[in-house]
Design brief:
By secondary structure, the protein is of the alpha+beta class. It has helices spanning 20-31, 41-47, 63-70, 104-107, 127-132, 158-164, 173-179, 182-194, 200-208, 218-229, 234-243, 247-250, 252-256, 261-279, 286-302, 315-326, 334-347, 353-359, 365-379; strands spanning 5-6, 36-39, 56-59, 74-77, 83-88, 91-97, 141-143, 152-154, 166-167, 197-198.
Length: 385
């Protein structure tokens, strides 16, 4: 195996840019005699001079040893992929143990399995093993913020791909995506969030393998959609999914209308919402995101000639049914569906000056107002006083 290549001097990643509590976790593990590194998205963002939102750490300590080091501040989670959560104040750090590539027999988890999908991934290895079993090269960068001389550790030429804006799998794209079909969506997230382009081999496989996303747990996919809607890149990410024919398996109604008038309004609203989220002018609520996507579809079905739609007797039941049908692939908790319904129910009231003053007492008022303001900005609708 090749030795690690240091593509970036540590001096360019000043320790002051890294979360102090993340540095404490790394330093604590090292003081206990273990290796520890910041890995993945946080390193990627630091290189791109973006502030990381989350920090994942990798170590040669087992989850049980991490628990022993941090005591009550650590909790072991997961079955398919066991790791530790370390709590530092309000911050939670995901600390995983170095893994090696599992064998075909080790990864099998169901009768008749072809051995490609990884159902269990708890076979520990070395730092280099860990790097070579990750999904994309730009996610396989390691950084020790306590060691100013070592720099970024790069076994897979991820730093070069990061500089060129290329999303490339580590190894054969077919195998890497078949191991975990959610990686198809994660590739689209890299394309949408950073403006990267997939390598030619990966681009072909993203389209060819899009349908395999249906083999993934719907709970995992819903969680991914939640994450997308809470960040200011949902529009470009959904566009990247549509480009590789993936969106039809995630949000089929949106995919079907993507290039039509209804889909165009949805895209415009996503653009406005992304812009306001980036500016900090909008609370990153998944409820408002999910309700907002539905507005153009409800306007088309219920609005007739006017903006939005008018409430009528029984509309609460109609909206509840529409929410259930629109997100029918997923088991959204009942209370969340009720919140989405109420946000949609309040939209027409904003059209009536006398009703607006009475809305402020409603528990979903702020979310409903956010959705309505996005609609107004996207359509240019002039609200009467």
């Amino acid at each position: 195996m090749n030795r690690a290549v240091k593509k970036q001097p540590a001096g360019k990643l000043l320790k002051s840019k890294v979360s102090k509590t993340a540095v404490r976790v790394v330093d604590t593990l090292k003081q206990a005699g273990f290796e520890a590194y910041i890995v993945g998205g946080a390193v990627r963002d630091l290189v791109l001079e973006r502030e990381p939102k989350d920090y994942d750490l990798a170590t040669n300590a087992t989850p049980e040893e991490v628990k022993q080091v941090f005591g009550r501040r650590a909790r072991i989670i997961g079955r398919r992929f066991r790791l530790a959560h370390v709590y530092m104040g309000r911050a939670v750090y995901e600390v995983s143990t170095f893994r090696r590539e599992p064998t075909m027999e080790e990864r099998k988890g169901r009768p008749g399995d072809n051995g490609l999908i990884v159902w269990r991934d708890n076979v520990y290895g070395t730092l280099e093993d860990d790097a070579r079993r990750r999904d994309f090269t730009v996610n396989a960068l390691y950084y020790d913020p306590t060691d100013r001389d070592r720099g970024i550790i790069d076994y897979c030429k991820g730093f070069n791909d990061l500089q060129q804006g290329i999303v490339r799998t580590i190894g054969d794209p077919y195998t890497r995506l078949a191991e975990d079909p959610v990686r198809i969506l994660r590739a689209c997230k890299l394309v949408g969030q950073y403006g990267f382009k997939p390598s030619k081999k990966l681009a072909r496989q993203l389209t060819a393998g899009a349908e395999s996303i249906c083999m993934s747990s719907m709970a995992r996919l819903l969680e991914e959609i939640y994450k997308i809607l809470k960040k200011p890149w949902s529009g470009p990410i959904f566009a990247a999914c549509q480009d590789v024919a993936l969106l039809q398996y995630l949000l089929p109604d949106l995919a079907a209308e993507w290039d039509n008038t209804t889909g165009g309004l949805a895209r415009d609203m996503l653009k406005v919402r992304d812009r306001r989220l980036a500016a900090g002018d909008l609370y990153p609520s998944r409820v408002t995101g999910m309700a907002m996507i539905m507005v153009p579809f409800l306007q088309h079905d219920l609005g007739h000639d006017g903006p939005l739609w008018r409430n009528f007797s029984g509309i609460d039941r109609v909206l509840a049914d529409r929410v259930r049908d629109f997100y029918g692939l997923y088991r959204i908790p009942r209370y969340s569906r009720a919140k989405i319904r109420d946000v949609l129910l309040l939209q027409s009231a904003f059209l009536q000056p006398r009703m607006r003053r009475r809305l402020t007492a409603h528990q979903e008022y702020s979310r409903a107002r956010d959705v309505f303001e996005v609609y107004v900005a996207a359509t240019g609708f002039e609200l009467s006083t």
